[in-house]
């Protein structure tokens, strides 16, 4: 920022330059007449705007880029996609976030990588088919770059995050507009439509955070189903070649075995979601329903807004999600989140269960590879943590160990067909209480009016049923007396229900 204020305005700043800045920064959204009569110098000083015209023009150009392309949505997806692409290629990084690791840039899959992964997928299909009671996907395995993974999954991300983004963009806009309106000794009017302008600003900040989170995921995931969500457009299995090789190298895994292992997991996921289309729809619907009801701590957001430097767009983009968004969850949302996490855990555990059955005794380092994924699940990658904080939803499945034990018990008692039949309807899947063994509801007390009388069940029910069918004990059974009553059937010499006889 220049140390020599320019002359021209009451506060020593060039009023015309400030007008141009505001008009250019917000893409012409501010009518020129709305700026008349405002103390622009005071506004500029409160907002820490630079006083040098050249710096003002540069700042306006940066902000105009940030606000461009937002359209009618709640998120500036033009900016989000740009940030995501640069993050996926390792060219963009937010302060406080670990530097990208793994293969530099975004290399395209080589012919050798494509051939190796598709051969691994063929082996995985052959080994999965005997242990599944559903059809194994026959589509050729897609071998992707990070950018292609991003392109294929972005439509699903958009539909998933729009509900929460819509609310939060408005909340950010309201907090910033209120903070700007309180500048100076008396409230200062905001030029143009402050609510719409600041909502666009909130959507821009939101787009930056989403873009970085999804771009970071593109550098980490092996395929399109790592989060137990069907993120691909058509359910076809696909792997990211560079990320698969990075995982093999970083964990010192047997390369051919790891490729088969990862391909088997991706194909199993694809088979499950293809066989039961309701499952993917239910997962995304649950996320959207939860997001629509989320509430934001506006006091915490307002405190964050007070420290913003509107003259530094890069600093605005660098705001950490945990500094911006503090969520408040109602009891109904906690229950919804619990149900979502349980379903995700059941999906992840089912895939682990069937792939282990298919690959056991065939692959070296199978347990080591399973342990690698368990550790990832337990700790969560920085990208997953950022996405969870930004959206307010924990996408990583929990209780996978309990769900895995449940699937083992189902297989032992009901076989493969019975195991797969559990996915026919959501009511057939266990609740979190069933998985954990926690009691679901207190039993009625003995004196409760709604309690049912206890019924003694014969020790050998089959034997008692056989006696009944054979006619044993019929002489003791009460019989009709021909007059609408019951004759003695218990040997006490009295009618069983004399009051029922007609007078």
From TrEMBL:
Residues 447-463, 491-503 have a biased composition (Acidic residues). Residues 87-112, 418-503 are annotated as: Disordered. Residues 418-427, 476-490 have a biased composition (Basic and acidic residues). It comes from the Bacteria. SUPFAM superfamilies: Metalloproteases ('zincins'), catalytic domain. InterPro entries: Zinicin_2, Zinicin_2_N. This is Hydrolase. It comes from Brachybacterium muris UCD-AY4.
């Amino acid at each position: 920022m220049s140390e020599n204020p320019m002359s021209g305005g009451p506060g020593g700043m060039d009023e015309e330059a400030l007008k141009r800045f505001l008009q250019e920064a917000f893409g012409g959204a501010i009518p020129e007449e709305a700026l008349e009569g405002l103390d622009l110098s005071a506004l500029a000083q409160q907002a820490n705007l630079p006083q040098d015209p050249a710096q003002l023009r540069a700042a306006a150009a940066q902000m105009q880029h940030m606000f461009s392309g937002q359209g009618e949505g709640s998120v500036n997806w033009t900016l989000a996609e740009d940030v995501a692409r640069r993050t996926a290629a390792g060219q963009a990084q937010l302060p406080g976030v670990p530097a990208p690791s793994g293969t530099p840039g975004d290399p395209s899959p080589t012919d050798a990588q494509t051939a190796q992964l598709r051969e691994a997928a063929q082996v995985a299909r052959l080994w999965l088919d005997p242990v599944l009671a559903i059809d194994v996907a026959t589509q050729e395995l897609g071998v992707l770059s990070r950018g292609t993974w991003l392109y294929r999954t972005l439509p699903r991300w958009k539909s998933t995050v729009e509900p929460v983004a819509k609310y939060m963009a408005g909340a950010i806009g309201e907090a910033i507009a209120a903070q700007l309106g309180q500048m100076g000794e008396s409230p200062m009017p905001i030029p143009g439509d402050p609510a719409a302008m600041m909502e666009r600003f909130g959507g821009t900040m939101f787009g930056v955070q989403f873009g970085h989170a999804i771009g970071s995921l593109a550098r980490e995931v092996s395929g399109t189903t790592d989060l137990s969500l069907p993120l691909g457009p058509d359910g076809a299995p696909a792997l990211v070649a560079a990320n698969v090789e990075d995982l093999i190298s970083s964990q010192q895994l047997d390369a051919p075995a790891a490729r088969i292992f990862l391909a088997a997991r991706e194909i199993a996921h694809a088979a499950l979601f293809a066989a039961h289309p309701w499952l993917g729809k239910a997962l995304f619907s649950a996320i959207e329903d939860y997001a629509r009801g989320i509430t934001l701590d506006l006091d915490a957001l307002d405190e964050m807004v007070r420290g913003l430097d509107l003259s530094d767009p890069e600093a605005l983009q660098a705001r950490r999600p945990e500094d911006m968004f503090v969520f408040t969850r109602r009891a109904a949302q906690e229950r919804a989140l619990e149900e979502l996490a349980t379903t995700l855990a059941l999906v992840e555990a089912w895939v682990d269960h069937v792939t282990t059955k298919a690959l056991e005794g065939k692959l070296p380092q199978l347990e080591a590879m399973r342990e690698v994924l368990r550790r990832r699940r337990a700790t969560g990658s920085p990208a997953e943590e950022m996405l969870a904080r930004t959206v307010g939803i924990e996408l990583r499945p929990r209780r996978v160990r309990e769900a895995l034990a449940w699937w083992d018990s189902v297989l032992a008692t009901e076989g493969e067909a019975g195991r797969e039949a559990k996915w026919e309807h959501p009511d057939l899947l266990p609740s979190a209480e069933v998985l954990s063994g926690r009691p679901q509801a207190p039993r009625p007390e003995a004196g409760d009016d709604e309690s049912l009388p206890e019924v003694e069940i014969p020790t050998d029910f089959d034997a008692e049923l056989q006696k009944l069918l054979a006619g044993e004990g019929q002489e003791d059974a009460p019989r009709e007396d021909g007059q609408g009553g019951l004759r003695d059937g218990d040997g006490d010499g009295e009618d069983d229900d004399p009051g029922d006889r007609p007078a």
